Structures are given as C-alpha cells and as structure tokens.
Amino acid sequence: MTTTRTMPMTAAELYGHGLRLLLEKDIAGWVDLWHEDGVMEFPFAPEGWPVRLEGKAAVAAYMRHYPDHVDLHDFPEVTVHETTAPGTIVVEMRGVGRLVESDSPFDMTYIAVVTVGDGLITSYRDYWNPLAVQQPGADFVGATR
Length: 145
Fold this sequence. Notes:
Number of helices: 4
Radius of gyration: 16 Å
Helix content: 10-25%
Mean pLDDT: 88
Shape: globular
C-alpha cells in the first residue's frame, strides 16, 4: 500500500487559491487561509479606513460583508513575483466587478506583499488604490468615515 503525502501549497499557490475563493464569495474559506496571529495592513488607507488588522478574527470581521458591497467577477491581471524572503511573494493584480449598491463598475489595482508560514497567511500588506473608495457605493469593508 502506498501513501501519498500532501505537500503544502507554496505562497503563490495559496494566494491563487484565495483569489478563487474570493470570486466564489467564500469569505469564510478565504479567512481559513489565515494564521490565527496573521496581520493585514493597508499602507495607503485613506482617513477613516483601517490601517492594520491584527489576528484572523479581525480579518474575518473586516471581510465579512465584502460580497454585499463588491461583486467581484475576475482578476484579469495577476503577476506573482517570488522574493528571496522565505514564503514571501509580491503580487501585482487587478480586480474587476461591480459595486452592489450603485451597480457601477469596480476596477481596482493592487500590489500585495504576502508572507505565508506553516501553510497559512501570516502577513498581508495590501497596497490598493485609495481613490477607488471615492465612488458612490464604495463604502465597504469596515470604513468608519
């Protein structure tokens, strides 16, 4: 009898899997990719928006209602850059869809620096375009403004 050993996903594979979960609107599944102590940061967040989320529970709370505000259709451009830091990738990407409240187009560019340890996301710095939240209906994911 042979046994097969499941190899842990690389950071790039885990990230790609996460994008598929977001397109499926499986936020719980996406949050399950996070380490309990994972940190998500938004260095370009405008005033009133979260800058740092500490822990899986904070990430889950932040993302809980995302599909109610943004209906993602595709990530037509995704380029993953491997780095010399173990488990760390830099991702350039574009997400497209629509804003649910206004039914207007959603088109966001991102650069993310993601670190994976023990098969889970431990750090995610999301450099998204803050100008996009000026659109009507873009008041999503925990904004307090």
